Predict the structure of Iron(III) transport system ATP-binding protein.
Amino acid sequence: KVSLEARHISLSYGSTEVLKDVNIRIEPGEFFALLGPSGSGKSTLLRLIAGFNQHQRGELLIDGKDITGTPPHLRNVGMVFQNYALWPHMTVWDNVAFGLVERKEPKESLRRKVAAALELVGLQDYAQRRPSQLSGGQQQRVALARTVVIEPKLLLLDEPLSNLDKNLRVQMREELKNLQRTLGLTTIFVTHDQEEAMTTADRMAVLDKGVLQQVGTAAALFDFP
Ligand code: ADP
Ligand code: ADP
């Protein structure tokens, strides 16, 4: 479990300022939602934490250590995308194993970890299927398994439920919350859905035009009883 802190983070594309003096601290093990309309800079902030974007000003700290300049694969950060980004030609097993194979994980522990990750998301019986033979919800579970199998310290979720239909979305956000609790991973969940944020997150922030507007619990932000 790690903490994440952004201090005075700013990022521009050319003359367009996308993140403006963002300050935030996310506690170890916390499930944090980043809420805001399309174009407000949510993905940019997440990609920055993952190391795919670089900020021009400010500091980004994991457990108090500045990770600016640390390449993505050395950050111990796992990211799940809206479109799942699974390999279509690979089985579920091979999709989940991929990151471990890249890290040259020994065969025995690789098998154990992939099996455990599939069991965690309830897909142990689907190991030999291909992504196209799965439902949307199952594909998203594979994407989650593939990310948690590498044992990241920080889990980043970029609108992971947006491609699912309404009923499945409600079911999956429960699963997501349970998974996060089970693993105890510090998690940042990007969504434009207020209800989704309120039902999953310990705390949340609203991002508007690159400015972090509000940070607090659902009760504090939306006047819950
Ligand atoms: P959100 O995730 O909240 O929808 P984004 O972080 O994707 O917002 O985008 C924030 C702003 O940054 C948008 O105005 C978008 O057009 C702009 N933007 C994102 N990526 C790039 C890029 N690579 N080059 C230029 N502008 C970008
Ligand atoms: P070997 O190299 O000994 O044949 P691998 O570990 O490379 O075995 O696995 C071959 C294929 O079998 C993998 O690509 C994977 O799809 C599948 N596989 C391996 N172990 C399991 C398992 N425990 N459950 C389901 N499928 C598995």
Notes: The helical segments are 42-50, 92-102, 107-120, 136-148, 166-183, 194-200, 218-222. The beta strands are 4-13, 16-26, 31-35, 57-62, 65-66, 77-80, 154-158, 186-191, 203-208, 211-216. The longest strand covers residues 16-26. Residues 13, 18, 36, 38-44 surround adenosine-5'-diphosphate (ligand 1) (CB under 6 Å).
